[in-house]
Amino acid sequence: MKRSIVVMLVMMISLFSLPCKAQVEKTLEPKLENISWIAGNWKGEAFGGRTEENWSEPSGGSMMASFKLINDEKVSFYEIEIIREVENTLILQLKHFDNDLKGWETKDETVDFPLKEITVNKVTFEGMSFEKVNENEMNVYVDIEQKNGSIETVKFNYTK
User: Fold this and answer.
1) Which stretch of DSSP H or E encloses residue 131?
2) What CA–CA distance (Å, rounded) separates 69 from 63?
3) Which residues does the UniProt record annotate as the domain DUF6265 (predicted)?
4) What fold, for 22-159?
5) Which 3-state string (H, E, C) describes 26-80?
6) N or C: which end of the chain has fewer CB within 10 A?
């Protein structure tokens, strides 16, 4: 009995004394092929309603998406989004539209999110990030400025 306790203690000490290495995700090149997992027809809930976000596969140096929010069975607003390759990096740009397609931004204005980092399961832009949970689920985090000037990060959980 004493021998088996000693053996178990030695095994536990050996196990816990193994060198611990923090998992560091490798940063990937700013190429559309490294974020192609975003492509697909995604559905979720946010802002008290249903959301749809449909991303194309990379082609022509860009990916494009349409977004809509449905509240009380009516569209609240739309977005057109693109991620494009510009000068050896990526940029996410979007425009908002009311339910009658009247734009929120002026004709030549876009909301821009410069790239910060890409890893195997995450792409981070300034103010928006996409996180791959698995092949059929992703989270999108968007920083939204509130009326009082503070920033609130809103999480969109999507499934295919």
Assistant:
1) strand 128-134
2) 20
3) 36-143
4) Lipocalin (2.40.128)
5) CCCCCCHHHHHHHCEEEEEEECCEEEEEEECCCECCEEEEEEEEEECCEEEEEEE
6) N
Domain boundaries, the chain: 22-159
Evaluate whether 103 touches 126 at the Cβ level (below 8 Å): no
The model's pTM? 0.82
Closest CA to 82 of 97, 103, 60, 106: 60
Residues in the chain: 160
Strands 74-86 and 89-98: antiparallel
| Cβ proximity of 41 and 54 under 8 Å | yes
Alpha carbon separation from 27 to 19, 50, 125 (Å, rounded):
24, 33, 14
